[in-house]
Design a protein that fits this description.
Length: 348
């Protein structure tokens, strides 16, 4: 009984810190977080991954910046959040966001706006060799697309959708318009519409990894973890320099394994073990490819080992994370998790 209680408590702390399930986001009312991401030269950064976490670090949602470097999270009801911005070959940025009070899903909340500057690692000025994909877009379609981007910046979403649809009606194979439309649908949690637009974008340009990242994000929010893992693997194949895809693949595999009841059958137990093993392999690969600098891999490995019952190893991963990230605002919570993992009843 002591072992079971200790395990349950430690798991609860880890889930609080590291959990990846969406936490019932509100729509319509609530707080809003807006931001713009630029590089150190002042150039807007499109298609940069932005993660929204709770005040204790649990992942709530993910998005990507639009063509102007803008991102938006709305319908928020808590008082404390963290946003993390990451892009290949740039140092990640973490911002804490605090609101004065909690609000209900129907109440108008507060708005916080951020200007984020990404600094290239080791002075790199060319962070990524982009895939060459050029379209000869009719002027009328391009004008409608640019109008849509402008309207989005002004918060005029419905008018922007109309402009995007006009651009697509004029030029159905307009990749940027289809992808932007999908991104906006994702923000509104209109996943069926987003998938339809993403499928068109994939048909037009099947080599753009951002399309697969967006597909995977939807699958994660719908808790279709096995599908998400395969999609993130394809994104990684298309853009092997982006370590985030490997971390996302590993996270999806951990979530997939955690949903399988190993007592149900021998086949279920084997499937669970395979998913955990694949997750460990993918995460370890991301860590090695990053030059052993991708500290957040240790957080996901800690989840993996804890769920497997290897509590000492889970604690060790959390300790290594703190060694590499001594300024993390969640240090006290992580140390509490380590204490539970290494406490009485932590061993058989």
């Amino acid at each position: 009984m002591i072992l079971r209680t200790a395990t349950s408590t430690a798991l609860a702390v880890l889930i609080l810190i590291l959990g990846t399930a969406a936490n019932g986001r509100a729509q319509g009312g609530g707080h809003t977080i807006r931001g713009k991401v630029r590089n150190s030269s002042g150039v807007n950064m499109p298609q940069v991954m932005v993660s929204l976490e709770s005040g204790t670090g649990a992942l709530i949602n993910q998005s990507v910046t639009n063509n102007e470097g803008d991102f938006l999270f709305s319908g928020l009801d808590e008082t404390s959040y963290i946003i993390t911005i990451s892009a290949p070959d740039y140092n990640p940025v973490m911002e804490h966001v605090d609101f004065v009070r909690k609000v209900s899903t129907s109440d108008p909340g507060e708005t916080r706006t951020f200007e984020i500057t990404l600094v290239a690692k080791d002075g790199l000025r060319s962070p990524r060799a982009e895939i060459s994909f050029v379209q000869n877009v009719p002027k009328e379609a391009r004008d409608s697309f640019e109008l849509a981007v402008k309207l989005l910046k002004e918060g005029r979403t419905q008018e922007s959708f109309s402009a995007l649809q006009k651009a697509i009606n004029i030029f159905p194979d307009y990749f940027d318009a289809q992808f932007l439309l999908a991104s906006e649908f994702i923000k509104q949690e209109k996943f069926n519409e987003a998938i339809a637009a993403l499928d068109q974008a994939r048909r037009i340009n099947p080599k753009d990894d951002r399309v697969f990242q967006a597909f995977g994000s939807i699958m994660m929010q719908q808790q279709k973890f096995a599908v998400a893992a395969r999609i993130f693997a394809e994104a990684s194949r298309l853009n092997p320099r982006n370590m985030d895809y490997l971390v996302l693949e590993g996270t999806a595999l951990i979530n997939q394994a955690a949903r399988i009841d190993p007592t149900k059958s021998q086949a279920a137990a084997e499937e669970r073990n395979y998913a955990f093993t694949d997750a460990e392999t993918v995460l370890s690969r991301a860590y090695q490819l990053s030059g052993r600098k991708l500290a957040r891999v240790h957080l996901q490995l800690a989840r993996l080992y804890e769920k497997r019952g290897d509590r000492d190893r889970a604690a060790g991963e959390l300790e290594e994370y703190l060694r590499q990230s001594p300024d993390d605002k969640r240090t006290a919570d992580i140390r509490e998790a380590i204490k539970k993992l290494r406490g009485p009843g932590s061993r058989d």
